[in-house]
Recover the amino acids of this structure.
């Protein structure tokens, strides 16, 4: 005899049905978040749209802890997103699926000033991004996180569950956000070049292309060895560029670099 589904399964199935019937409506993100929470017991859900030609947009935010999304609009979307490992998935056009921040972050990410000054303030301790590409040049990240509300990371079984529902979330993203590509298009951005121009214009500091690239890698949380591999230059050369960068900017620490550069990133 086939076993009857338990109460939690029935609830999840009902919430999934609401997702399907609400596709294309303003209520869809709420139903999607509720269904994800029923499957993964997440503390927070964030839906972000990344674009090739303009800054990202937060399409939906839900959290119980007030700190989690407090600085999304004022810090993250204003330029800090450029330092986010999840944003790098968009830039590199990573395959659709679910990604864990712990797995895709650079080697020194957790020591970076981005983490120290921004990410830690969100209280998030574990985060998954369900990444999809519903339109040309557009990535949708449905992010599910654990924060100070529960103070626990995702278990192995929950990660398996996340892999299982990833194709469903991808299908939902394609069906609900397929029309984002043609909106608010602006000129293509070149982050290192933009940083060079703004440094010279706003600070009177003229950086070389390599110095700007090294600055961005440092801010993203890459070690000297990692930057060396990314740029195809020796670790010693990376150290030379870093010393030149700090000397030109009149700084001596990553904290000072972060404070100087963050306002010049993004919009």
């Amino acid at each position: 005899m086939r076993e009857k589904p338990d109460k939690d399964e029935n609830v999840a199935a009902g919430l999934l049905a609401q997702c399907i019937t609400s596709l294309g409506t303003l209520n869809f993100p709420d139903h999607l978040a509720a269904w994800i929470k029923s499957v993964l017991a997440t503390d927070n859900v964030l839906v972000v749209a990344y674009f090739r030609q303009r800054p990202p947009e937060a399409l939906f935010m839900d959290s119980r802890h007030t700190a989690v999304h407090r600085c999304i609009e004022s810090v993250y979307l204003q330029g800090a997103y450029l330092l986010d490992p999840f944003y790098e998935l968009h830039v590199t056009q990573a395959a659709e699926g679910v990604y864990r921040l712990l797995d895709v972050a650079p080697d020194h990410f957790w020591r970076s000033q981005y983490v120290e000054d921004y990410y830690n303030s969100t209280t998030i301790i574990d985060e998954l991004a369900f990444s999809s590409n519903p339109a040309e040049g557009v990535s949708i990240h449905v992010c599910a996180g654990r924060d100070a509300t529960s103070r626990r990371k995702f278990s192995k079984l929950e990660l398996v569950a996340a892999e299982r529902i990833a194709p469903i979330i991808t299908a939902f993203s394609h069906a609900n956000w397929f029309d984002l590509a043609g909106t608010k298009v602006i000129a293509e951005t070149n982050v290192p070049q933009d940083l060079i121009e703004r440094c010279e214009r706003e600070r009177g500091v003229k950086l070389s292309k390599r110095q700007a690239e090294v600055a961005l890698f440092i801010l993203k949380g890459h070690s000297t060895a990692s930057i060396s591999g990314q740029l195809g230059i020796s670790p010693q050369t990376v150290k030379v560029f870093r010393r030149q960068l700090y000397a030109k900017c009149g700084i001596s620490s990553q904290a000072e670099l972060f404070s100087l550069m963050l306002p010049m990133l993004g919009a």
